[in-house]
């Protein structure tokens, strides 16, 4: 329809131009006549075509305008939807920021706990090392005590053996010697100590009773008041 309007406008302007040229010729030659077959068809036809084409163009323009308005409404609705989506994203971003801050706090707390755990582990290792050193010292002391007990038992055994041999050499009917030997034996017996049953059996092969000075509860395993019996 725009083509029709263009053709109509061209014909209309052509008729006007033809009229203007005819007017100029009329000034030179008054007998010059206007060609009705050329002017009127061009003038009227051009005017009609221009009106028809223009009305059609107006209809198309209105349709395009309506389409543009519909498209504008759709764009506005889409724009509003995008705004709502942006608001939702902003709210999610705030929530994520809060969650991130909480996670950072938790991470710092865990880092502090991990550091404290490392310190505790180091202290534990130090204490374990000290305990091991103390155990070694304790073991060394126990070995020394055992050695000293063995030496004491050996000396006690030697003393008891000497006292026994002296009592055998002395006369049995001598009361004074018997009294003296009895005191010596009693003195020796009160100081008797044996580290274990093996040492005790060297002196007393059948063991000793609970009223004997060499009796020790730890050597009476069956608790029958007789230590180191065979």
From TrEMBL:
Region (Disordered): 152-189, 207-230
Excalibur calcium-binding domain segment(s): 193-229
InterPro entries, alphabetized: Excalibur_Ca-bd_domain
Coiled coil: 58-151
Low complexity composition bias: residue spans: 153-189
Assigned keywords, A-Z: Coiled coil, Membrane, Transmembrane, Transmembrane helix
Stretches with biased composition (Basic and acidic residues): 218-230
TM region positions: 6-27, 39-57
Protein name from the UniProt record: Excalibur calcium-binding domain-containing protein
Protein source organism: Robertmurraya siralis
């Amino acid at each position: 329809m725009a083509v029709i309007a263009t053709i109509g406008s061209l014909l209309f302007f052509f008729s006007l131009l033809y009229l203007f040229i005819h007017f100029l010729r009329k000034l030179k030659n008054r007998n010059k006549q206007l060609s009705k077959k050329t002017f009127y068809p061009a003038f009227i036809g051009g005017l009609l075509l221009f009106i028809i084409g223009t009305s059609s163009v107006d209809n198309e323009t209105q349709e395009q305008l309506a389409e543009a308005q519909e498209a504008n409404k759709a764009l506005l609705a889409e724009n509003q939807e995008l705004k709502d989506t942006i608001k939702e994203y902003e709210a999610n971003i705030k929530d994520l920021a809060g969650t991130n801050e909480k996670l950072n706090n938790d991470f710092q707390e865990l880092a502090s706990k991990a550091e404290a755990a490392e310190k505790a582990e180091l202290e534990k290792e130090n204490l374990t090392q000290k305990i091991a050193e103390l155990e070694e010292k304790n073991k060394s002391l126990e070995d020394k005590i055992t050695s000293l007990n063995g030496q004491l038992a050996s000396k006690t055994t030697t003393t008891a053996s000497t006292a026994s041999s002296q009592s055998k050499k002395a006369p049995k009917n001598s009361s004074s010697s018997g009294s003296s030997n009895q005191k010596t034996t009693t003195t020796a017996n009160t100081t008797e100590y044996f580290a274990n049953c093996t040492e005790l059996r060297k002196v007393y092969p059948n063991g000793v009773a609970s009223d004997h000075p060499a009796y020790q509860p730890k050597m009476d395993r069956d608790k029958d008041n007789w230590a180191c019996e065979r």
